[in-house]
Design brief:
With 132 residues, the chain is an alpha+beta fold. It contains four helices and four strands. The protein has a single domain (4-131), classed as Nuclear Transport Factor 2, Chain: A (Roll). Helices cover 22% and strands 36% of the residues. It binds zinc ion (ZN).
Length: 132
């Protein structure tokens, strides 16, 4: 069932963790619930890298979930790295601040976001993000 792109990255997880299967693959491919908002955030980054829109949709809070395209295919960007700056969890709410680097049209760009997560029925969901 593994996608080609995932196989290629078996050595290292896109999020910078150990192997994909020991890291985000457990949540993306095996369907285990991410135990923390931080783990969910990292797995969502990896899902962006591997082009897994289903996973992104599933982990989006239902009322905020986009119905259309999440990953732009016409003008694709190449994710090159993730750096988590801050992570705060308080009960069933959490925030993760991170910088995701990517390349677009050969130029290096950075996405600096503070993401909000909510826990519902023992699962973490992405709510939305504030950009810097
Ligand atoms: Zn990972």
């Amino acid at each position: 069932m593994a996608r080609k792109t995932v196989k290629d990255m078996a050595a290292t997880c896109p999020c910078g963790g150990s192997s994909f299967h020991a890291c985000c693959g457990r949540y993306i491919e095996d369907g285990l619930p991410a135990p923390t908002a931080l783990a969910l955030m990292r797995s969502r980054y990896s899902a962006f890298v591997t082009g897994n829109e289903d996973y992104l949709r599933e982990t989006w809070l239902a009322k905020n979930r986009p119905s259309g395209t999440i990953i732009e295919k016409k003008d694709p960007i190449k994710w090159v790295g993730l750096k988590v700056l801050n992570h705060q969890e308080l009960g069933d709410r959490a925030t993760v601040e991170f910088i995701a680097s990517y390349k677009k049209n050969g130029r290096m760009m950075k996405l600096h976001e503070n993401s909000l997560f909510i826990k519902e029925d023992d699962r973490w969901y992405y709510v939305d993000g504030t950009f810097f």
